[in-house]
Specification:
Function: Involved in mRNA degradation. Catalyzes the phosphorolysis of single-stranded polyribonucleotides processively in the 3'- to 5'-direction.
Number of strands: 31
Distance between the termini: 95 Å
EC number: 2.7.7.8
Oligomer: single chain
Strand order of the largest sheet: 8-7-9-10-21-20-18-19
Helix content: 25-40%
Mean pLDDT: 90
Catalytic activity: RNA(n+1) + phosphate = RNA(n) + a ribonucleoside 5'-diphosphate
Strand content: 25-35%
Low-confidence stretches: 719-729
Radius of gyration: 35 Å
Structural class: alpha+beta
Protein name: Polyribonucleotide nucleotidyltransferase
Cofactor: Mg(2+)
Largest sheet: 8 strands, antiparallel
């Protein structure tokens, strides 16, 4: 086992221990630690440049989480047999770390910072995502990179009614709440997770329990930092300031920005008005500098004007909301923007919905597929298939911008995951045969397109005829705080998100919460404010749910006529081979003759057979075919049999798929027959009754005549020893 110079161990409950170590690995990084729990080991490194790049006016933090397949003794399944670009799973963990770390850095710190967390040893029962932020924070703590506080993150789940910190992978199978909580010693900073309709109070309780566990982890990091001997954080170059220019911007722009903010302008007009103020300021500064016509002020001055103007907007809008309870678009604090929604808007997809809330719009489709369409999700510890897929697309035209179209970025992956986690709480269980893909295309965006995706997805799933029992809606909330006053905003705009102190998105049904994503930007947020914010979010969610139920009250009773049909049945495992046939001959014949797709898996000592097809009759034919193969013939039952061959002594008929018997010539008719010529032909379908089995050979004995009316005075026929019928004497 890896051992380093300095280490600190703490307990997380149930006798489980976590060890943080530093001093031996990756020593050229500014900070490097390993975090160990069981056989799970994470290596985290943090490196920062000494100075910001010239002209840089933003904080360039990059956080990457990656898993080495060697950590679990596996070789990657890709063509190149090496780890490639981060998977969606790794991107989601990277985002969890990034969102928790970002507020730790000073606002005027603009140096490049890169944090890399790598899983180097995997434990099948330890979930590494719950330890990743701890590792990242510890790497920063033992470095001289300037951070304001130490942070950590834990998973809290409810299992059999009991809350547990960082449960094992096996325990998570029974969890009905799963939240990742990031916090400093004093404040909750980040929340993300899902639940099976938990209440707001249950969520608050989970936050409080998680925060106590986080404080233990923060103390361990601080003690490790003291062991290493890190006393002070490094100094760094501060961005240039011009107080005279700041004052000029405030004097010129404050009244104008206030007027614009109260004018209830649409997003595009508000943006243009703001830009006009910026252009006017540039011209004033240019003239005061006595620059000649056509000569521009310096880029540095332009950036300062833009920064100071942003500060004016920040203060003006926040004061307007706090003091006047008036928002940028004129709404009240709890008012949801106008809603418009419609289902079945596209003729070909298997389900579709258009959801519009103010200037945010999602066109969402649902596609139904077979088990062959399931998504393979690979991590170092395991590979599993998912039958529910959700993809979120955010094209540049949705915000009126021109950008290159590339693959989905981290934002798209994160927003799609929140919607997926919310909607999957209401998806049918394991006996549901379809693979379902939901695609949300954002056509217009001004605040919380991820919540529009949840609403549109719920509508489209019901339109597709999936057994989706309840609508799931989502609403994005904001918070403004200042000097003891606060205002909670329902259904925030994009600008309100940027200017606020907390943005959180809550999804759920009428009965409870299904998903949450929360980022808090202020220190010392009391739990009472959190409770009030969650309650206001619940009221906003109910308003949206009422509108959704008015649009489509329940899932359609059947899938669309052009959607694939499906039947799922369970058979004894001993019949799996009979359905497949030698070399797949039987199942291929069924699929070819019926135009269906058949998937067979062994689950729980049973054979799970899923039949898919676009034509209802073909699915029914395949279903009956398989039922016939696995059926056990019962003496006395009547079957429709197909004549397969004619012999002098009778006809061989198939009365169940794969099961044949002899219909003796004496059992064809009450009338004595010398031959079957003109009576039966190959391919004829006749009704027969199973009368028994031959005790010596086990062959089936069938009769047709027993189902026919017996002529009066007709003497019964008897089989002779030579196989021919003889009249009784």
């Amino acid at each position: 086992m890896l051992r380093q110079k300095f280490s600190k161990t703490f307990e997380i409950g149930d006798g489980r221990q976590v060890t943080i170590e530093t001093g031996r690995l990756a020593r050229q990084a500014d900070g490097a630690v390993t975090v160990t729990m069981g056989n799970c080991i994470l290596l985290a490194t943090a490196v920062a440049s000494e100075e910001p790049k010239e002209g840089q006016d933003f904080f360039p933090l990059s956080v990457d989480y990656m898993e080495k397949f060697s950590s679990a003794g596996r070789i990657p399944g890709s063509f190149f047999k090496r780890e490639g670009r981060l998977s969606d799973y790794e991107v989601l963990i990277s985002r969890l770390i990034d969102r928790a770390l970002r507020p730790l850095f000073p606002e005027d710190y603009l140096c490049d910072v890169q944090v890399i967390v790598t899983l180097i040893s995997s434990d099948p029962e330890v979930m590494p995502d719950a330890l990743a932020c701890l590792a990242a924070s510890a790497a920063l703590a033992v470095s001289t990179i300037p951070i304001k506080e130490v942070i950590s993150e834990v998973r809290i789940s409810r299992i059999d009614g009991e809350y547990k910190i960082n449960p094992s992978r096996s325990e998570m199978q029974k969890s009905d709440m799963d939240f990742m909580i990031g916090a400093t010693e004093k404040n909750i900073m980040m929340v993300e997770g899902e639940a099976k309709e938990c209440s707001e109070e249950e969520l608050v309780k989970a936050l409080e329990i998680a925060h106590e566990a986080i404080r233990v982890q923060i103390k361990a990091q601080q003690e490790l930092r003291d062991l290493v001997g890190v006393k002070e954080k490094r100094d760094y170059p501060k961005p240039a300031q011009d107080e005279a220019l700041r004052k000029k911007v405030e004097e010129f722009a404050t009244a104008k920005i206030a007027e614009q903010s109260k004018a209830n302008l649409p997003k595009a007009e508000r943006k243009d008005a703001y830009k006009k103020v910026y252009e006017e300021l540039k011209e004033i500064v240019r003239q005061e500098a006595n620059l000649s016509e056509g000569e521009e002020i310096s880029d540095g001055t332009k950036k300062l004007i833009k920064n100071y103007l942003a500060d004016v907007q920040y203060n003006v809008v926040r004061d307007m909301i706090l003091n006047d309870h008036v928002r940028l678009d004129g709404r009240g604090l709890e008012q949801v923007r106008p809603l418009d929604m419609e289902v079945d808007v596209l003729p070909t997809p298997h389900g579709s919905a258009l959801f519009t809330r103010g200037e945010t719009q999602s066109l969402t489709t649902v596609t139904l597929g077979t088990p062959l369409d399931e998504l393979l999700i690979e991590s170092a510890a395991k590979s599993e298939y998912s039958k529910f897929i959700l993809h979120y697309n955010f094209p540049p035209f949705s915000t009126g911008e021109v950008k290159f179209l590339r693959g989905p970025g981290r934002r798209e992956v994160g927003h799609g995951n929140l919607a997926l986690r919310s909607l999957k709480q209401m998806m049918p269980g394991e006996d549901f045969a379809y693979t379902v893909r939901v695609v949300s295309d954002i056509l217009e965006s001004n605040g919380s397109s991820s919540m529009a995706t949840v609403c549109a997805g719920s509508l489209a799933l019901m339109d597709a005829g999936i057994a989706f029992p309840k609508h799931v809606a989502g609403v994005a909330m904001g918070l403004i705080t200042k000097e003891g006053k606060y205002a909670v905003l329902t259904d925030i705009l994009g600008d309100e998100d940027h200017l606020g102190d907390m943005d959180f998105k809550v999804t759920g049904t009428r009965e409870g919460i299904c998903g949450i994503q929360m980022d808090i930007k202020v220190d010392g947020l009391p739990m009472e404010i959190m409770r009030n914010a969650l309650e206001q979010a619940r009221r906003g969610r109910m308003h949206i749910l009422d509108a959704m139920y008015n649009c489509i009250a329940e899932a359609r009773s059947d899938v669309k006529p052009h959607a694939p049909r499906t039947v799922k049945m369970f058979i004894d495992r001993e019949f799996i081979g009979a359905v497949i046939g030698p070399g797949g001959k039987v199942i291929q014949e069924i699929q070819r003759e019926t135009g269906t797709t058949i998937n067979i898996e062994e689950k729980n000592n049973m054979g799970e057979v899923s039949i898919f097809g676009t034509v209802k009759e073909g699915v029914e034919k395949a279903h009956n075919w398989v039922k016939g193969i696995v059926a056990v013939p019962t003496v006395g039952d009547v079957y429709e049999a197909t004549v397969k061959s004619i012999q002098p002594y009778g006809a061989f008929v198939e009365f169940l798929p794969g099961k044949q018997g002899l219909l003796h010539i004496s059992e064809v008719s009450w009338k004595r027959l010398e031959s079957l010529e003109g009576v039966l032909n190959e391919g004829d379908v006749v009704k027969v009754k199973l009368t028994g089995t031959d005790p010596k050979t086990g062959k089936f004995k069938l009769s047709r005549k027993i189902l026919l009316p017996k002529p009066e005075g007709q003497q019964p026929q008897q089989r002779g020893g030579n196989g021919q019928s003889e009249k009784q004497s």
